[in-house]
Backbone:
């Protein structure tokens, strides 16, 4: 079982092959849950292969790469691609897993793709406790979702900071209204779509 209080102190994550692992620390005074958003910009879609990537924003000092180096640098497999001037997208050079987005314009922030957070924090120990076959029984799936003890997925993944680049929404697929404000582009431009 995942202990909620422990998770609020730190979350772990990594890539498919295990070459890049990290710990996100949430010391006293840090934002919990962390600001989360969905981005539908073309670059995020291309970087992740997802129509609606979910990201959380943290301070770089909260990110511990867990590598053997004592200077806090990422492991050798972590690489960054400059997708536009002053913007960098991080990934694992071994398995291709997308990790981060950061910008020179906001040096006090780094965005982490939520899908890289370890499953135990997102859905608890559901896969160990519930068989796939039992989920097909009427009403069981909803019961399991409502009973995810220790799971932080809803807390972390609800886009409290909004949905970015909704001008790229795809009717009937990505035009869903989840939570938070909806912005034509990025929230800094203040071009909000009214409810």
Residues:
């Amino acid at each position: 079982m995942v202990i909620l209080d422990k998770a609020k102190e730190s979350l772990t994550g990594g890539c498919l092959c295990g070459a890049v692992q990290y710990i996100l620390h949430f010391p006293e005074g840090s934002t919990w849950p962390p600001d989360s958003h969905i981005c539908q910009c073309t670059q995020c879609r291309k970087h992740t292969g997802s129509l609606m990537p979910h990201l959380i924003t943290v301070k770089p000092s909260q990110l511990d790469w867990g590598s053997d180096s004592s200077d806090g640098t990422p492991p050798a497999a972590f690489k960054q691609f400059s997708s536009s001037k002053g913007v960098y997208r991080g990934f694992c050079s071994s398995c291709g897993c997308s990790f981060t987005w950061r910008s020179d314009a906001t040096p006090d922030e780094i965005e982490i793709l939520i899908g890289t957070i370890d499953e135990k924090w997102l859905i608890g120990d559901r896969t160990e406790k519930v068989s796939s076959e039992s989920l097909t029984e009427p009403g069981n799936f909803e019961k399991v979702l409502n009973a995810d003890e220790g799971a932080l997925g809803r807390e972390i993944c609800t886009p409290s900071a909004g949905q970015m680049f909704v001008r790229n929404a795809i009717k009937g697929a990505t035009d869903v209204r989840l939570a938070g404000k909806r912005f034509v582009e990025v929230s800094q431009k203040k071009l909000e779509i009214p409810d």
In short: The two ends are 39 Å apart (CA to CA). The chain has a mean pLDDT of 85. DSSP finds six helices and twelve strands in the chain.
